[in-house]
Specification:
The structure is a single chain. The protein is an alpha+beta fold. It has one domain: q2cbj1_9rhob like domain (Jelly Rolls), CATH 2.60.120.620. It is built from three helices and 13 strands. The strands form two sheets. Strands 1, 2, 5, 6, 7, 8, 9, 10, 11, 12 and 13 form an eleven-stranded antiparallel sheet that branches. β3 and β4 form a beta hairpin. The two termini are 16 Å apart.
Length: 186
Amino acid sequence: MTRNSDVIVATLALGSEFDKLAKEAAQSRSFSFAQRESANKRDERGFLRTSRRFSVSSGGEVMASIHDSLIARWMVDVVDHRALPTRASFLYYASGDYVGPHHDLAQCTYTVLVPITQPSYLHTYPEGLDGEPDEIERAFLAGELLSKPVKLASKSASVITGQELMHSRPPGHAEAWTAVFCYSYA
């Protein structure tokens, strides 16, 4: 796998498919539900999970088509093997919503992010974070953790290695919408 940066593995411009996805995100918002979790722990893999606050929707036909076809075909070139589509959703962040530092779930070996609103940044911790999960979350919410912000490309899909790369979305940003597509080894 060849990376085009130390964080983003590859980027695909979505063209007219982006407009369809953005329209579906707006339509799906009325069906979203609040996702509030306080899970400061390390899982059985030793990966960090911290709290989160946002709303989520599963999307519809456009999301399913992009997940199962367009991006799935592209992922073969990106990761040199077939990647199995595992889950997809729209995430809606109100002002103050966040996702604390974490590694993605096992179903998300590769995570594809499509920011619906701009600008959109992924905050990363390439060296990871040591310490107790409760202390890490406290420092995160207080704005005391040093992260590496990476701007995500507009109207494009950006691939990260979600299980390997610790990342977050800090609170305090304006309202934002993102489509998230997960893939695992086939």
